[in-house]
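dumping this here before i forget
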Amino acid sequence: MGTDAARSLHSPLERIRFGRDVLLYESGVLVDLAGRLDLSFSRAAELLFACRGCVIVSGMGKAGIIGRKISASLASLGTPSHFLHPAEAVHGDLGRIRSEDAALILSAGGETEEVLRLLPILRSWGVPIIAMTCRAGSTLAKQADVTLCLGEIEEAGHLRLAPSASTTAMLAVGDALALLVSKLRGFRAEDFARFHPGGSLGLRLSKVEDHMRPPAECRTAPQDATVREVVVATRRPGRRTGAVMLVDRSGRLTGLFTDSDLARILERKDENALDRPIADCMTKDPICVPAGTSMPEAVRLLAERKISELPVVDAEHRPVGMIDITDIIALFPDHWHGDDGEEACEQTFPRVCPRTVTDASEAREAGT
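structure:
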């Protein structure tokens, strides 16, 4: 950078202004491009929707980096896709291509040697080609079945040379294409969750069935048994829930008896209570959720109602599992060891944090 240009950026204000200029310039390119989107975009989406194989995305340099992201977006939104490096393709990677595939080729100038070398091979195999380029008269555009022409785009920055505005345009059009094809497929949030089971995104989209303790790990007992009988009969090896789900003779959930309930009986030295029906001590009609409830909704209930256990029931109100607060905390192992874990928790379940949840019996004592 020249001395004068460098000197003009010594001020923090000037640096911020430079960054804003780049962002405003690139956003202007996108606004202009949105106004020029034509029928070729619709035809490209139809071609990808009709593809019965994989969408092969390819490009060199910065266009290739953008292509990798577009390929990843297509795959995560229900369209099988993988990236093919054009230089590696002619050294064995052509074996990744099948005649039922479709190709999306990115090249700003449309004359990249490695990219052009792929075109006759793809055409000989009957693979339809979608070109994304800035030049409608380029070799790539002329040999493609559908051309997404971005138009002549001047790059951002003081040099106007580094791929910036052009790659932003490629990425945006690729995103729009992937999302349109996804919508054509009727892709739903439930489908998205299946492809994103890990991380906070997966948790936000998951259901209680994905994280609840199954019946074999839950404590369930008849409501007409005594406290003593229930305590003895519901012992489980390994980890256990802090509550017993109580059911009537038809198996419907009628109450909940927690470890704190038992502790209070012992603290009062009320040994006679141990041989009375547990229904006398249980929480009647406890808060529960039906199977299919989203995890964010379940965690919201745990926090708002200040409870530690949340039974999951079927359509007949029979217990099929239990959401336990200790399991929720375990989903965020770093929560107690720094801000990163807490931030992940709050991003996944907004305004809900595990440490806000207390035992159900404590909440009842407090009159909540």
